[in-house]
Amino acid sequence: MKTMDNIGLIQVQAVYSGPEGRLWELIMGEQIHIGGFASSMDLADKANIGSGMKGVDLCCCNGAGMRFLVRFRDVARMQGVDATEKVVEQGRRRCEQEGLSGKIEFTLADVCDSGLEDASADFIWGEDAWCYVVDKQKLIAEAARIVKPGGTIAFTDWIEGKAGLSDTEAERFLSFMKFPNLQNLEGYGNLLTANDCEVVTAADTGRFGPYVDLYLNMLNMQLTYDALKIIGFNTELMQSMAAEMVFMQELAHAGKIAQGLFVARRKK
Known about the structure:
The protein has 268 residues and is of the alpha/beta class. It has a single domain (2-206, 256-266), classed as Rossmann fold, CATH 3.40.50. 47% of the residues lie in helices and 22% in strands. The chain has helices at residues 9-17, 19-28, 36-47, 64-72, 85-97, 136-146, 167-177, 185-194, 208-221, 224-230, 235-253, and strands spanning 2-3, 54-58, 77-82, 104-108, 121-127, 147-160, 181-182, 197-204, 257-266. α6 (136-146) links the parallel β5 (121-127) and β6 (147-160). The longest helix has 19 residues, at 235-253. The chain is globular. The relative contact order is 0.17.
């Protein structure tokens, strides 16, 4: 697992409380994860998420994943946990505007210490967000604690690809993305197994490269002005960020970074 010692929750909160978070939403939509709706549906299908279930979304951000699950998988109730106050407030407003407040609640807390009840959820959900969590061992342990025996832990995340990152590449990528570390397929699988879960699926979705291509095309061909407005029309900053996105694109196509998809069952 690649690690950056000087990145933690404070830096992540700054991203999603400021212009950088708005920029990600501009190019990725409310579902700030690779693949958007199609990725969510794929994960829900593989995890057999369906009618009447109760779930917990760890690192729920603005709650788009929970709104998806309630609307399109007929999930009865969702509880979201996130440590950034601004996105939690935004999520509550959006749920209220869409008439979903009765089925979706938010908890402002560290996802490694959520305060939620033991064995209280049918499934745990996460989409491309656990890469921001410093202690992934505690995160997986918390997920396993909250889910019922026989329940499901289902998530996608940005991971180190099979080709692997050099230390120099990892430092540049993690610094740009404000990731404290980057897990891989085997590492997440081992953490799930160590927390009394049976891994059903652990795979590279193959989406990363094509979607970074899409995001760069959108910024270059359509959303340039919108992006510049978000960052105060700072063209030098825009060029710098674009260079880091191109570097990320190169890593993705080289198989050095990927979107991993994981489904596990907590043993009964």
